[in-house]
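From the pipeline queue, job 12 of 40. The input is one protein chain; the requested action is below.

Action: predict structure.
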Amino acid sequence: MMWLVALGSSAGGADATSRLRTDRAPWTIRTERLIGRLPVSVSVTERGRLVYAHAGNVLQTPASDEKLLLSMALFDRFGADYRMSTTVEGPRPSNGLITRERWAPGWRTIALQFIALPTALVFDHNTSPGGFVFDPEARAAAALTADLRGLGVRVSGRARARPEPATAQSILATIRSAPLVDILRRQIVDSLNLDAEVLTKMLGAAVFGSPGSIAKGARAIQSWANRHGVEVVAHDGSGLSYTNSVSTDGVVRLLTAANTRPWGPSLRATLPTGGEGTLAARLNGLRVRAKTGTLLEQVSALSGWVWLQRPRRWAEFSILSRGLAKSQAVVLEDELVSTIAKHS
């Protein structure tokens, strides 16, 4: 493969130019023709080397590809097999505090239509037939009380939610979650904003101390990327913020770094393949693992791994755009991925 490097300060258009070597591979020529002057950034790495970039150093809004960055930071902190514990306690909890924020810099008001309240204790996705709920802890307590009484367990008083008491209590029961890799696969395949922000708060608490918050979690994502030499501006973990930013060069660099970590194969396994999840009706028959991203103001993203058919190995890729209709962006993304896979 050849190395194409983009110059300029914006993605696409007259301000983004490319410097090409004379030994251009056919697939890169086709890629350039597909991109033309469209406002899109594209980067591809193979075996740890950047082999193609068009406006690859331009900061773009990643939309839900932010969830991919969140997943990498979570795996690196906790490991793929980590299980969260939920306990039932009687006269105890300590000084823990749950933050109940549902906002991050760069969110539009419409974002609140796409995410329930991210709480540490989530009950029925924090929704009801009428929409989002804002008392999931109380609902969980009521359901638990009803279940215990149904089993013949005596429970005094009525179910309610309140701040944790200062006096120590005994752990009555503990249940462990599924492994983190399974939780992240569910979050990634269907691009679940609530799951992402709950996990963002967990990450923030682990890295910067309790209480967990969206802001702390976003700072942890940013710090993790910075340690790998990648400039990231993060304000959430779901990607709802329009002020998140990363370059395609940065995304593929982080994916390349993931390949060197024990959890790298687990990360790839969390991503949907063609025809699955958010890739339904897309890239069918192509060996690909990728995260989609969409924001209403013409932001689109697709990043992950694609299998190179001729050398028979994985390559990392990232495609970020702003200013294209979603239908146009999807067609372009799919054609680019197919070109990378078939003509490398």
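Job complete. The two ends are 7 Å apart (CA to CA).
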